[in-house]
Every structure is written in C-alpha cells, then in structure tokens.
Amino acid sequence: xxxxxxxxxxxxxxxxxxxxxxxxxxxxxxxxxxxxxxxxxxxxxxxxxxxxxxxxxxxxxxxxxxxxxxxxxxxxxxxxxxxxxxxxxxxxxxxxxxxxxxxxxxxxxxxxxxxxxxxxxxxxxxxxxxxxxxxxxxxxxxxxxxxxxxxxxxxxxxxxxxxxxxxxxxxxxxxxxxxxxxxxxxxxxxxxxxxxxxxxxxxxxxxxxxxxxxxxxxxxxxxxxxxxxxxxxxxxxxxxxxxxxxxxxxxxxxxxxxxxxxxxxxxxxxxxxxxxxxxxxxxxxxxxxxxxxxxx
Amino acid sequence: xxxxxxxxxxxxxxxxxxxxxxxxxxxxxxxxxxxxxxxxxxxxxxxxxxxxxxxxxxxxxxxxxxxxxxxxxxxxxxxxxxxxxxxxxxxxxxxxxxxxxxxxxxxxxxxxxxxxxxxxxxxxxxxxxxxxxxxxxxxxxxxxxxxxxxxxxxxxxxxxxxxxxxxxxxxxxxxxxxxxxxxxxxxxxxxxxxxxxxxxxxxxxxxxxxxxxxxxxxxxxxxxxxxxxxxxxxxxxxxxxxxxxxxxxxxxxxxxxxxxxxxxxxxxxxxxxxxxxxxxxxxxxxxxxxxxxxxxxxxxxxxxxxxxxxxxxxxxxxxxxxxxxxxxxxxxxxxxxxxxxxxxxxxxxxxxxxxxxxxxxxxxxxxxxxxxxxxxxxxxxxxxxxxxxxxxxxxxxxxxxxxxxxxxxxxxxxxxxxxxxxxxxxxxxxxxxxxxxxxxxxxxxxxxxxxxxxxxxxxxxxxxxxxxx
Amino acid sequence: xxxxxxxxxxxxxxxxxxxxxxxxxxxxxxxxxxxxxxxxxxxxxxxxxxxxxxxxxxxxxxxxxxxxxxxxxxxxxxxxxxxxxxxxxxxxxxxxxxxxxxxxxxxxxxxxxxxxxxxxxxxxxxxxxxxxxxxxxxxxxxxxxxxxxxxxxxxxxxxxxxxxxxxxxxxxxxxxxxxxxxxxxxxxxxxxxxxxxxxxxxxxxxxxxxxxxxxxxxxxxxxxxxxxxxxxxxxxxxxxxxxxxxxxxxxxxxxxxxxxxxxxxxxxxxxxxxxxxxxxxxxxxxxxxxxxxxxxxxxxxx
Lengths: 296, 469, 302
Description:
The structure holds three protein chains of three kinds. By secondary structure, chain A is mainly α. Chain A has twelve helices and two strands. Chain A has a two-stranded antiparallel sheet with strand order 1-2. Chain B is about 45% helix and about 15% strand. The termini of chain B are far apart. By secondary structure, chain C is an all-alpha fold. The chains are: A mainly alpha, B alpha/beta, C mainly alpha. Chains A and C meet through helix 1, helix 3, helix 4, helix 5 and helix 7 of A and helix 1, helix 3, helix 4, helix 5 and helix 7 of C.
C-alpha cells in the first residue's frame, strides 16, 4: 500500500471496516479479560462482595500440586495431540494426492472432515462407551487380534491416550482441509522437476513439498496449539479428569475452581496464567517459523 | 481463484438470496424470542423456581406451575428448568445468576448441596414450619425422619424432602439365571456378595463384569464405608432440632435425632476405610469388578440391561431408567446393600430451598409447601425416575409396570435401618467430592496403591476442610 | 482451481530407449500396487473416522436392549424409529431447531460480514495501530470461554439482553478466528487488481465491493461453515445465558433426554444426537464445495 496519508474520508471508512470486529472484540473479550485480571487479585465466591487478595491467588496456584499437574497435563496433551493431528492430516493429505478415481477421493475427503461437524460433548458420551474396558467396541476389536482388554479410561497412561485419540479423531479434519488446500497450491512443475531429478516418495516430499507447505503448516499448528491448550469437553466427559489427576487439564481445573469450589479469584488467576502460556507458545511458534517457514 | 462458471455463480447467489430471505422471515417471526420482549418475569416481578430440568418430566413442568397458579392466583410463578447434565452444570448456572444479581427465589437442591446452601445462601424454614405445623403434620407423618434430618443444618430445617435414593443393589435376572443363583436374601453379607460375584464370573464369559460401579460421591465407595461403619470424614450430629422432632415425630422415631449432620475431621487413614479400599482392590484384582470409571453412569443402564453387568449399586431411580430402556420387570430385581460390620445404607435426598436474597420469601414458602403435596408429587413422579420421599406413595401399583419385584426395599431401607446416613457433604462438598473420586481412582488403578492414595486423600481432605467456604 | 487429483506426472510419455521403457513399466506396476495399497489404507482410516458415527446412527435405530451388542452391529436389526418418536414426544424439537437455526444462522452471517470487513482492513488498508490491533484480535482467540462467561453475563445484563437469543448472537458475531482467516485470504489476492481499479477512479469502498469481495466468497464460506458447526453444537454459553424454555437451543434441549441421573435410554439419547447432527451435515454438504475451493485457493499463507 502507498505510504502517503489517505484522505480523512478514507480513514473514516477504514474504521468502519474495523469497527464491528474491534468494538465487538473489545466489549466481549478485552473488557472481560481485563476484569479477570483484576479479579485474579481478589477473593470472590460470588455470594459476598470480593475482598482483596494481593498475590495470594497466584501463590496458591504455584503451590497447588493439582493445578500444576493440570498445567503439565495440558502441555503434554498439546504436544501429543497437535503432533498426531498434524501428522495424520499431512499423511492423509499427501496420500490423497496421488492417482485414484475422483469420487473415491471426494468421499474420503468428506469422511475425514466429518467428525468436525459433531458436538464434542455428545460424541464423547458415545466414545465413553466405545472405550469401556469390559464391554466397549474398541477392546472388542483389539480382542479379535488377540489383545487383552485395555483399561482405556481407568489407568493413568491409557486415559491420556484415550483423550488424545478422541480429540485428534474429531479435530484432524480441519488440519487435513488446510493441507489439501496448501498442497493444491504447489505448482505441479515443481513436482515434475523433482521427479526428473530422480527424487521419489519420501525424499521428494521432504525436499520439495514440506518447505513449500510450511506456511500452511504454521497456520495449522498455531490454530492447533491454541485449541489444544483449551481442551475441556473430551476429558470432562470421558474421564472427569481422572484417574487421579491424569487427564485434568487447565481449563477443567479453572472450571472446577470457579463454578464448583466458588473460588473465582483463583480461577481468574488460572485463566490469566493459561492465557500467558498460550500467548508464549504461539509467539514461540512464530519465532521458530522464521527459520523453517518459506514463502514462495 | 476461480468462480468462473457463471451458472454456478448464479445458483450460489440465488441460493444466497433465498436463504437470506428465509432467514429474514424467520428472524422477523421470532423477534420476540430474540429480544425476549414476551417473556414474563424478566422484570423480576415473579417468583422464580429453578429445578434440574432432567429430574422432572418436561410435560409435567407446566402442570406444576399452572396448578400452583390456580391455588395462588396472586403469586405469579416462573419455572426455570435448568438443562444441566449434572449437579455441577446446574450449580454453574445458579452461581452465574447469583453473580449477576438475578438469583432465583427457590432452588431445587440435592443432599450434595444442602449444607453449602444452608450455610451461604439459604433461609431456615423453621418459623414457617412452626406456623403451618397443622398443615404439615400429614406430610411429616409420611416422610421418614432420616430424610428430614439430612436437610437440617445446625438445628434448623432448610428443605422439605421431595425425593430420595438409597444405595441398594440391583441384580440382573439374566445373569442370576445363567449362574443358577437366586436373588440373595435380605440379610446377605459381604462374603455372600463376593461368593455371588465369583459364581457370576465363572459363567459370564468375555466382556462380562460381575460388579460395576461409578466413581462418585453417591453410590460409589461411600456405601461400602457406611456398611463398614466408617467414613472419610468423622460424623456427628449438631445439637437442636427438638422443636421439629417433638412436634412431628413419635418418641420411638425421634430417638437419636439431632439438628443435622456435622462432617468433621478427615479420617481417610482410619483402619476401616483402608479395609474397604483393600476389599474393592481385591475385587478388581480378581476380575470381579472393573476399575471404577469417573463421571456419570450413562452407559451403565445399557450394560446392565444386556447382561454385561451382574450387580450394580443404584436406588429407586433406576427402576424408571430400566423400564425406559425396555427392560422387563422380571428381568432384574433389587436387594439391600450387603451387611459388613453394620447395615447402614447411604442415601441422598432433594427438596426446594428458599434463597436468602429472595424478596418473596413468603410466597417461596408457599411453593415449597405446595411441592411436597401428595397429589403434586404423584403427578411429577409418574415414571419412577426417582423414589418419592412420601412412604405412602410407594405402592405395588406404582411399581406394577416398571418393577422391581422387591420395590418395597426402597423405603424399607430407611425403616429397617434408621441409622442410615446421607452423602457426606459438608459445605466444602466440591473439594471433598473431587478429592474422594480422584484418589479412589488412583487407589484402585493399580496394585499396591491403596496406602499412598489414602495418604494423599487425607492430605487433600484436610486442605479442603480447612478452607472456609 | 478445479481439483487436486492427478498431480503425479503422467507416465510413459516420452520413450527414449527400450531399457528405460522396461524400467518404467516395472515402476508403473509397482506404482499401481502402491496406489491400491494406498487407497486401501485411506479407506481403512476413513472407516475408523466415520465408524463411531455409523454406530451412533445404527444404535439410535435399535431398541436399547440391543444397543450394547458385541460384535457391534452396523446395520440396525429390525430397525425401529421408536427412539425418534420418543424424542419428538419429549421435546419441542421444532422450537429447539428453530432457535438453534436462528442463533447459528445469524452468527454465521454476522461473522461473514464482520470477518470480511475486518479481514480486508487488516490485509489491504493502512491505518494507525494496525499491528497491535491485529495482535489484540488474535490474542482473543486464546481465551477460554469459561474465563469470560461471568463478565460477559454481567455486560449482557447491562444491555438488557440476558435470557434472549440475542445474548448468544451478539457476543459471537465479532470473530478473531474468522478475521484472521479472511486477512490471510485477502493477502493472497493480487494487489494490482485494486490498484487498477483505483486508477479507473474507484474509491476504497468500490474497490472492496466490486473487486475483492466477490473474489472472497469461498473464504467467507469457510468462515460461515465453521461458525455454523461450532455454534450449532455449543452447550456452555446457552446453559449459562438462557433460562426460559422457549429460548433453549438444540444442545440444551437434548440434555433432558439423558434422564434423571443419566438413566435415559441410550437409543433416545443417540436419536437426539443424530437429529441435531442433520442440519450441521446439511450445511457441510452445501458448503463443502466453496469450502474446498476457499481453503485451496487461500493456501492460508502466514
């Protein structure tokens, strides 16, 4: 765009473009966040007026093993879920690129995207049954291959695995869609040139496809991370955070602290820390991306 | 970037326009709901009653309001059916309204929340109960004192019990037949119970679990604690309450009653508590029951009705649930919880509480009184989705369609074991619930974890109980 | 942009020597085998993906007593619509659907408008505080709804909107994610188009309205479809913000099918899930094509 100052009329128009978004975001997100930050320095149980707490809520948070575990779980979940989500989506998008009847290709694409239209909460109720140790379908299928029943929802390691699987199952379609779009934008000549040079399969993808796809990868991973760090429904319905604290996530602990235990100040502190965490991870991603992301 | 095919563009655009037109039409037609200009009571001029939507048949909700209206034309009432999946959702909703200063006047509260509401939000009903004693005599004569006592806090009454559920045992007829076993006798013991599970296991095959339970405050590990004469918190009774007992209950029934339960110091390391966990761990170890799942027991009805589960703890509310799921009345039965050191059972109850912030407390009391009338309760509980708090409502006719054959044990649990106790729910209930379910899951999650889990439970309970709510 | 198929180079186009030809033929067979294996693998994954959905649908068509059969049956045995009849008996399905459609539709349309305008401004217009403002908008994506719900409730109360459908719509119309998406989308469009129009004397509004906005339809479709999906299934905000029965949305109404203390029939619960799935699937089917094109042509460059 030109660097000359636009006429005043244009400036007014610009702000008209921006107004709905900026004003809306300001009223319904920024103001509540500022409120939360302020509230995080108070004790408030909703019933009586707030009383000043200084930094007590933050100190509480730093010493409560359950909350710290929840933050640890959230990061762990994010790493597993986002990696698996991106990897699945990428492999499927690449596999779908090759030669096959067009209707199969479209059917597959719809299938992969489909779980995204479902409600996380109600599908988790279904999943809770499917993953049941004794009479669930998953263990029945595994049993056909001779595996003994897996305590999916009731043992610490498996419970996290189940939550990750259910989450990824529902979410990978979005990354998949992004990748399909990104791949389609890679000029065909580049592939052909690489093939001429004798590059095939994996090497071709590593050398040509991935670098060209890197901007899409960045968007997919940024959105993936932001969503994964706010995971709530799946562990809430599947395991209620358990067993123990094994699948308790930051948003779950926030919800429980506020709405079950009536400690809204402390919950706000958890929210502020979570927000800072997401902000940091996202900033880190953008920073790293300077090294790995190539723009055409 | 293409949108080259003009035909498609036209189609898209036409589609867009017609959608927009349809949308505008619908929007205009629904403007009332969009802006809520037609919703009565938004100005706060009505008595607002919040109930857990799933607990009351939607088709009966309006009846509840309309009949009350006919009786009290001067009180305008609005029923808020909170569509919560569980007690926690329900509470979130009520809290947000309280935070915004638009709290309801009357709230349906279960045992879990009785003491929290009593301590922080509720109004004691004592003065009204005294005033309307004559009117209420028939009600109290019909309701077991245990239920009433569970709704008292520090000598005052906060709710009139409407429904309750005691943790009994449900047994699958299919599985019993397969095992060639009879319904256990009323005085069965824990060892009889274990033996039955072993027999069931032998004939059960793959994908079958003799005993299944959900890890929660009601019907989880706590009934076993009661049966073994212990609990995770020390139990005592507040003084007071004579004003009520002397007024409504004969000498025999009021013996030992006080002013409500007091849940005190955590005692998760008590020998008997450990005994209970060791016992449950041994059941898990022997494959007689699976590790308990957290959350709601949504799948349990299905698993039980198809004979994948032999025995499970449940209360009267299950009779309706099984019937809805298409289970025949003779395909299952119910029995008391097995005896261990004691025959104490665990129960939970619910009723309407009046909020302190209400400006219509007298009207609210009229509603509370109305909601425990026999004819009103009869209409609300047609499907046996819970156990009515009035003894006279438990009749053979009521259970003729749904079963179980031994429906009489539901109320007999209270009559025969009057020392049965409510869910251990101090005002700090949320933290207690969280600690208990959390560490129960780890205690039974792997071999040898009972001891460390109970130590952690003790620590968390101490922390929870120190907190003032 | 038409499709993404057949991107592998066309084989056997220029034979040079017989040796290379044979080599090529061998490679071709291998590739064919590879293709079969790949398609088979993809089909397995697709089956895993929609398996739970098929199970949900088929279980809703069975009596509850058969619902936990193993091996799981995909085809309903003697299909019964009893569960669906019960859903209609128990709930005012049409009112719930109308409310949901109204709320979700208006949010989707609103988001398309605000995201289109906002995204364009952030991509193509110059103004002060552009970067910090954009950062601010992005940052709001990182706040869980559980954090803001109480303040939002208070704000809505101040506006007199609690327990109205507008309470669900108004706060959801400004969209950080949609704005972000549309900005990326507009960034991929050539600057020259606008500059050419300006030289022809078009003002900034004309440039947007007649040059860029028409090109943005697929991108807006993405925003619309995703907004519809998300808000159609929303539970927490309606739970907190709506109190009167006549304002309940679909997910809220479905809760009562779960019965007291989770004793509802699984078939009925799932019948409700399937019913509420239908409109979302319909929007997905209708929006699929522009959606695909939108994602494809945006490439979503950072």
